[in-house]
Structures are given as C-alpha cells and as structure tokens.
C-alpha cells in the first residue's frame, strides 16, 4: 500500500478549510497530480472505472444525489481507508455493493450547487489479480440551484 495517501487526503482537507493559506489550493489540481496509482504488470488490463450516476444522459448531479462509480471488476480495498477523496473536500459515507464493483458516495451535507468536483481514487485500490485502476481521477459537476423568477403571496 502506498504511504502518500494520508498525506494527500490531509492536503485536500487543508485546501478546503483554508485555501488562501496554501498558495496551490486556489486552483483545481491538474490531471495526474496526487497519489500515483499502482502500475499493472505488463499484459494485465487495468480495472476500468466510470461514473454511473450522474449518467451520460445527465452529466451533472443534483446537490442531494449520491455519486455512484462502477468498476469493470471487483475491487480489493486497502484496509480501512476511504476509497476516494473529493476536491473540494466534502465529508460523506461510502458504501460498496456485495460484488465489490459498485461504490456509492453520499455526501453528509449535499454537493455544492454549481460546483465541479474531482474524485481521486485511493492508489491502493486494485482488481482481483492486483491490477491497477485505470483512471485515478474522475471529474463531475453539480447542477446550479434553481433561480426564482417570481412569487406571489
């Protein structure tokens, strides 16, 4: 298991609590920044991951909806660690299905309307034969709050 995951999680948390204190927090991390995923052995196909909800038909979440990730093969978890970290940071609960190929993240307070998030997968996640996860970072957006056009008494 990689040892840099707790440090990365701490950085995500620090950036969400005090972005001005750390100069690099003001901007979204670039692709490839963060923990380096395991490299699969030559000839071993990495585990594919995709966002199942929101769906391709509706690429954004509503603030009160969960994020659902689907994996092409069952995933072995790296102990008691969280499977993903969000940037900007957001507390929530994770639940895996019995087969180990579906992860649901439900935020405790809901996603921020209009916000774009990056979900970073734990670098210790791997498939049944030790294969790495192909995409360690997935981005998604949240619908903006509705605008009230008029009201009447």
Describe this structure as you would to a colleague:
It is a single chain. With 153 residues, the protein is mainly beta. The chain has one helix spanning 5-17; strands at 49-53, 60-61, 67-71, 84-87, 92-96, 102-107, 116-121, 137-142. The strands form two sheets. It has a four-stranded antiparallel sheet, with no helix packed on it. Strands 2-8-7-4 form a four-stranded mixed sheet. A hairpin with a 5-residue loop joins strand 5 and strand 6. It starts with a helix and ends in an 11-residue tail after the last strand.
What's this, in brief?
With 153 residues, the protein is mainly beta.
One letter per element, helices H and strands E, the order comes to: HEEEEEEEE
Uncertain stretches of 5 or more adjacent residues: 1-5, 16-37
How many distinct beta strands? 8
Beta-strand percent range: 25-35%
Spatial strand arrangement across the major sheet: 1-3-6-5
Number of helices: 1
Overall SS class: mainly beta
Shape: elongated
Largest sheet: 4 strands, antiparallel
- Radius of gyration based on Cα positions: 17 Å
Report how far apart the termini are: 60 Å
């Amino acid at each position: 298991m990689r040892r840099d995951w707790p440090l990365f999680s701490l950085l995500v948390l620090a950036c969400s609590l005090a972005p001005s204190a750390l100069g690099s927090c003001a901007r979204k991390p670039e692709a490839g920044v963060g923990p380096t995923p395991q490299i699969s052995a030559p000839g071993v196909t990495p585990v594919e991951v995709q966002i199942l909800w929101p769906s391709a038909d509706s690429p954004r979440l509503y603030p009160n909806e969960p994020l659902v990730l689907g994996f092409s093969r069952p995933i072995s978890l790296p102990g008691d660690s969280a499977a993903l970290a969000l940037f900007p940071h957001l507390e929530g609960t994770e639940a895996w299905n019995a087969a180990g190929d579906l992860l649901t993240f439900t935020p405790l307070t809901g996603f921020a309307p209009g916000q774009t998030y990056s979900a970073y997968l734990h670098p210790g996640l791997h498939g049944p034969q030790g294969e790495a996860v192909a995409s360690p970072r997935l981005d998604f957006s949240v619908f903006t709050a509705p605008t009230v056009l008029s009201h009447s008494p």
